[in-house]
Structures are given as C-alpha cells and as structure tokens.
Design goal:
heterodimer, A: about 90 residues, mainly alpha, 2 domains, 3 helices, B: about 650 residues, Cytochrome C Oxidase, Chain A, oxidoreductase activity, acting on diphenols and related substances as donors, oxygen as acceptor (chain A), EC 1.10.3.- (chain A), transmembrane (chain A)
C-alpha cells in the first residue's frame, strides 16, 4: 500500500497550497513594501522549484542532470540580465 | 483615395520608382514562367509543402544568397555616396534608410538563414538522423523567416523603409522622431522571423540531444554539430529578450504605451540595453557555426584530425556563457559609471581567450598536415589572419576608457565588418563550395572560385582597412557626407574601389554556379573531397531518408575510420523507414503571418484580427490532426539505393 500512495505528490500539493496562502497574506495584511516583495519573491521561487521537481518530474528520467544544468544556465543568464540591467540603468547611472 | 495615401512613399526618388517597376515585372515574370512551364504543381509538392530538412536547407540557402545581393546593393550605394566629399548621389534621408536596411538585411535575413541553411543541410547527416526532431516545425520556421524577409523587403516600395539604424535606438525610433511606418516594418518583420529562429533553436537542440546515431556520445559529435548545438542553445536563451523588446517597441509605436519614451516614466535607454542583451549573443550565434565549418574544412584539407577537440568544445561552451556577460560594451558612452564599464571591459577581453584557443587549434591542425589549397581551404586560411586583426581591434574597442575615442566612428564599422566578413561571410562561402557537391551533384569550378576568393579578399582589405584610419581621424559613422577639408576623400575613394571589387567577386559566384552547372562533371562519387565526417558517408544526391541503414559510430570522424581503419559503418539488414508527411500548413501559416504583420504595420485592425484568428485556427487544426507519417518499404529503399550506385 505504501508504494502505491503518491506521498511525494500529495506533500507537494499541500506545500504549494501553503505557499499560495502565504503569498496571499501579502495582499490581505498590512506590511511594508520590502517585506511584501521579499515574501512574494521567496514563495514564487520555491513554488516554481516545487512544480518543476515534483509535478514536472525533473531529474526522474535519465537526462535529469541535463535538465538541472539547463535550469541552472537559464537562472544564471536571467540573474545576470536582471542585475546587470539594474546596475547599468539605476545603481551606477 | 485617402485610404491608399498611407501606402505612399514619404520620400520618393526615381530609383524607388524604378525598383517598383522592377519588382512588378519580376513578379509577373515569375508567375508567367511558372504557368507557362506548368510548374505550379511541382513547386507546391516539392518545395512549398516539403518538410525534408535538405530541401528546407536549400530554400534557406537561396534566400540567403538573394538577401546577400539585396544587402550588397545597399552597401555599394553607401560606398558610392561616400566615395567623394559632398556627393549628391543620395540625400540624408535615403542614406539613413539604406544603412538601416543594409544592417538588418545582412544580419537577420542573410547571415541567419545562411547558418540555418547549413544547420539544416548538415546536422541531421552528421549525426546519422533521418530528419530533424520536428520536421513540420522546421518548415514553419522557414516560412516565418521567409514572411519576415518579404515583409521587410517591401518596405522601400510601400510606406517607406525604416531609417533609425539597424539598432533602432529609442527615442529616435519612437513616433515623435520616426513618423513613417518604416520602424513598424522593422519591429514586425524582425519579430516574425525571430519567432522562426526561436523555433529552429528548440528544434535543433532537441535533434542534436535526442537523435544521434548509436555510439555517438556528445564528445564524439563532429565539430560543426557541436558548434550548431551551442549556437542553438544561445538562440533559445537570447531570442526571447528580442521578442519581448520588439513587442514593447511595437506597443509604444502602435498603442501609445511608454516603455521606451522619454516621458511618463518610460526609459529610452532600456531599449539599447535589451537590444544588446540579445544583440551580443547574436554575434556568437552567427560566428560559432562559422567556426564549426572552418573546423570541418581545415581538418579535411590538412588530412589530419582536428587538433584539441575537447578544448574546441570547451572554448565554445565558455564563449556561450561569456556572450551573455558583455552586452554593455555596445554602449560604454551611454552614461553609466566607471565601475560598470570596467566590469564589462574585463568580461569582453576575457572572450578573446577562448577565441584565441580556437585560432591556435586550427593552426596546430594545419601544422605538419598535408594541406590542399582548394577554394574552401583558401577561405579558411584567409580567415585566420584577417579575423585575428578584427579580434585585436575588438580588444582595443573593449577598453572602455579608449572607447570614448573610437565609438560611433568608422573605426567601429571597420572592426565589426572585419570580424563578420572574414568570420561569417567567408565561412558561408567556404561551406557553400565545400558542401555544394553533396547537395547539387557537381563541383563548383576551382579556378573561378579562386578568382572569387582573391577578389573578395583584396576588395575586403581595400574597403575596410582605410576605415580604421579615417575612424581614428574622427570620421563619424552613419553620416551621409563630409566636407573636402576633412581630408577623408582619398581613403573613402579607396574604400569604394574595394567595395566595387567585392561586388565583382560576388557576381563571379553567380557566374561560377552557371558555368559549373553547364560544364562540371556529374561523375564525382559521394566523397569528392576525401572528407572525414559522417555526412559524406551517404550517397550523392542524398536520398530523402539520408541513410538506408543507421550508421554505427566509432569516433568524431567515423567515416574516416571506415575508410582507413576498417570500421564497419553500416550493419544489419535494410528495414522499413518511417518518414514524416508533407504539409501545406506551415506555408499557409507563414503567409497569414505576412498578412498579419502587414496589417499591424499600417494599423489596419480588421485584417489584423482576422489574420491572428487564422493563425490560431492553424494551430488548433494541428492539435486535432492525426498524422502518423508514412513508411518507405524495403523494396523501395533497395531500388533507390541501386539507382544511386549500390547499397550503403
């Protein structure tokens, strides 16, 4: 029975509901902009990671390594583009 | 009549009216010719609906060559205008339009289809596959590129060409300063062909990762396939930025949003930033497949395996990452601080290191090799010193403090032509000559080819090296004229002579194709160059299924192993082959995109909405379509193989 029960997916589902609820708090409670954005960013990234690993089965097939390498590469380029842009146009203008 | 006024050219001249007549006559000629020779059915069955990677590759090739001449005509007009001080050949507005279309056509509609042509033609053959991973998507990519190219090329007879430079910087490209529809053409034509490029990127990555023949590990892939793979990875990561930036620019122009305006919280510099986040990787998208072609050619004609295979691969991987870390060097003078400029100076100089590794690897491949100076090899040997000069001036430009002197001058123009012409154009012509027999069944004439090479090389040096000097003396780029007192006259005349030599060189290519078609031997076998990698292991012309039996891979030079070291390439019995069906939907979708793009450009909302609905209908139809492809029977394969001169 234990092998048949998709514990990982159920846990993932519950976790994603909790994350959504936490994100919703930002709207319904009164907090500063910085705190709110921090919560939103954190929950968004955890949520995305959860979806990719638990529900899109990254890492379960034999090219799991390639998928993670790809995600890491995408992440690096996205971060470089975002922070590079901020550096050029705001912080060091 | 009022409705039609919007299609008028805001700035007409006799040359444009002559082009209108010429375009009309050529179109009528093509339609009449197809009807007279009853070729409509042939055109539809064999080309417009094809999903065969080889035929799509040939269509890319033909388009790229046509666009090379279109962009070349722009170039020769610019050089003619600048040949003498205060010339009156073109006025400022025409000059602006011509340098804009020259840049866009050469990068987006000449160089891109040229590399896609070689990727389509070569990659499936080099990895022993029957086609790309998504053949119909591949056809759609081509037709989107084609729609974008046509859309861009009608701009100068309907509504006016874009005139804000190929970089189309805002606020100049905004509605306030570019009132004509020209910049709308720029935004939508590049958007449509860019979507096609993105699809090709996904398609090729999947093909290379998933469809290699048994035994071909990643580190046993031929070098061109490696370079194509890296280039497509860059496409997948870089093109979305362009897509988004173009959408923002389009909505700014058509729907009065304020992304790149100078008021209401818009930021014009953000366009330059986005453009180059895509634009710099784009440079490497073009140059890496060119490097791949050189690697194949140098190794074949030195009769040696490629020196430093794994360092070649790792330098490309490093280049792909670094290409995303340098974009600010295109606008060092925009106003950001010294810290930012220093960071991007250093990353830019760092790219010279992996590129240098590759240059030395090619030199070591030739070292003690038995070199045959065929036409493709001549281009490759000419490329190394010329490209290195371009690279060195690139490092000069990378120094942000010194860039304040060089920027926006002819020095910069000389630099990037110095990398792109010997880097990309020479590679494409070398690849064209090298792979011509594989796809057309005869060789191009070597003598004429050598004349072409020398005309292009001498023409290139004469055309672009003087610009380094005038640039350092302060001749600004994109200026339509200069006074005699500046003293730029003689060197610019020299540039014009060089450009004219190059133009003659390109004409000799056309003559070479004609001459060789008439006179070359058709009895050349399937391996006329005594080459090394897998694409030469199948018949010439290549049957539609590429390989009757799946090849067994031993190394990155499997074919050479099978010729010299007794490796058995093809084992087992011939089996039935599963191939994809042809489809007219990609062509139809491309044409609908053309209508949609045109309607958006002129803000004709009703046809625009109808065309968008048409696109979604095509996509929905594909979702519900059951198409399991077709099977080629063993008997049919055996007959084809016999016809082509024995089973392989």
């Amino acid at each position: 029975m234990k092998e048949l029960f998709p514990a990982k997916q159920v846990m993932g589902f519950v976790a994603s509901l909790v994350l959504t609820a936490v994100a919703l708090l930002v709207y319904f409670t009164d907090m500063t902009f910085t705190v709110g954005m921090t919560i939103l960013l954190a929950t968004a990234f955890i949520q995305a990671f959860l979806q990719i690993v638990v529900f899109m089965h990254a890492g379960e097939s034999k090219d799991g390594k390639a998928i993670y390498a790809n995600i890491l590469y995408a992440l690096i380029i996205a971060l470089v583009s975002v922070f590079g842009t901020l550096l050029i146009l705001l912080w060091d203008m | 009549m009022e409705f039609f006024e919007r299609f008028a050219i805001p700035h007409p001249s006799p040359a444009i009216y002559a082009s209108m007549v010429a375009i009309a006559l050529v179109s009528i000629g093509i339609v009449a010719g197809l009807t007279y020779f009853k070729k409509w059915g042939y055109l539809w069955r064999e080309w417009l609906t094809t999903v065969d990677h080889k035929k799509i590759g040939i269509m890319y090739l033909v388009s790229a060559l046509l666009m090379l001449f279109r962009g070349g005509a722009d170039a020769i007009m610019m050089r003619a205008q600048l040949a003498t001080p205060e010339a009156k050949l073109l006025d400022a507005q025409h000059y602006n339009e011509i340098f804009t279309t020259h840049g866009v056509v050469m990068i987006i509609f000449m160089a891109m289809p040229f590399i896609f042509a070689f990727m389509n033609l070569i990659v499936p053959l080099q990895i022993g596959a029957r086609d790309v991973a998504f053949p119909r998507l591949n056809a759609l990519s081509f037709w989107l590129f084609f729609a974008g190219a046509m859309l861009f090329n009608i701009s100068f007879v309907i509504g006016g060409s874009p005139d804000a430079g190929w970089t189309s910087y805002f606020p100049l490209a905004g509605n306030d300063f570019s009132e004509s529809v020209g910049t709308n053409y720029y935004m939508l034509a590049i958007q449509i062909s860019g979507i096609g490029s993105l699809m090709t990127g996904i398609n090729m990555c999947t093909t290379i990762l998933k469809m290699r023949a048994p035994g071909m590990t990643l580190m046993k892939m031929p070098m061109f396939t490696w370079s194509a793979f890296i280039a497509n990875v860059i496409i997948v990561f870089a093109f979305p930025v362009l897509t988004v930036a173009l959408i923002m620019g389009t909505t700014d122009r058509l729907f009065a949003t304020n992304f790149f305006t100078t008021s209401n919280g818009g930021m014009d510099m953000l366009w330059a930033n986005f453009f180059w986040i895509w634009g710099h990787p784009e440079v490497y998208i073009l140059i890496l497949p060119a490097f791949g072609l050189y690697s194949e050619i140098i190794s074949t004609f030195s009769r040696r395996n490629l020196y430093g295979y794994s360092s070649m691969v790792w330098s490309m991987v490093l280049i792909s990452l670094l290409s995303f870390l340098v974009w600010t060097h295109h606008f060092f003078t925009m106003g950001q601080g010294a810290l930012t400029n220093s960071i991007f100076s250093i990353t830019t100089m760092a790219i010279a290191v992996p590129t240098g590794v590759k240059i030395f690897n090619w030199l070591f491949t030739m070292w003690k090799g038995k070199i045959r100076f065929t036409v493709p090899m001549l281009y490759s040997v000419g490329f190394i010193p010329l490209f290195t000069i371009g690279g060195v001036t690139g490092v000069m430009l990378a120094m942000s403090a010194a860039d304040y002197q060089y920027h926006n001058t002819m020095f910069l123009v000389a630099h990037f032509h110095n990398t792109i012409i010997p880097g990309v154009v020479f590679a494409m012509l070398a690849g064209l000559t090298y792979y011509w027999p594989k796809f057309f069944g005869f060789m191009l004439n070597e003598k004429i080819g050598k004349v072409t090479f020398w005309l292009l090389t001498v023409g290139f040096v004469l055309a672009f090296f003087p610009m380094y000097l005038t640039g350092l003396d302060g001749q600004a780029r994109r200026m339509y004229t200069y006074s005699e007192a500046t003293g730029f006259g003689p060197l610019n005349m020299l540039s014009f002579i060089g450009a004219a030599l190059m133009a003659i060189g390109f004409v000799t290519i056309v003559y070479n194709v004609y001459y060789s078609f008439k006179n070359s031997s058709r009895d050349i076998g399937s391996d006329p160059w005594d080459a090394r990698s897998l694409e030469w292991a199948t018949h010439t012309p290549v049957p539609e299924y590429n390989f009757a039996r799946t090849p067994q891979i031993s190394s990155s030079e499997t074919f050479w192993d099978s010729k010299k070291n007794g490796h058995v390439l093809f084992k087992g019995e011939i089996e039935e082959i599963h191939m994809p069906n042809n489809s007219g939907v990609p062509f139809v979708m491309g044409m609908i995109f053309l209508v949609a793009g045109f309607s958006f450009i002129f803000a004709l909302w009703i046809p625009a909405v109808i065309a968008l609905i048409g696109i979604f209908v095509c996509m929905a139809m594909r979702s519900f379509e059951k198409d399991h492809g077709r099977h080629i029977s063993v008997k049919e394969i055996k007959e084809t193989e016999e016809q082509l001169g024995g089973a392989k």
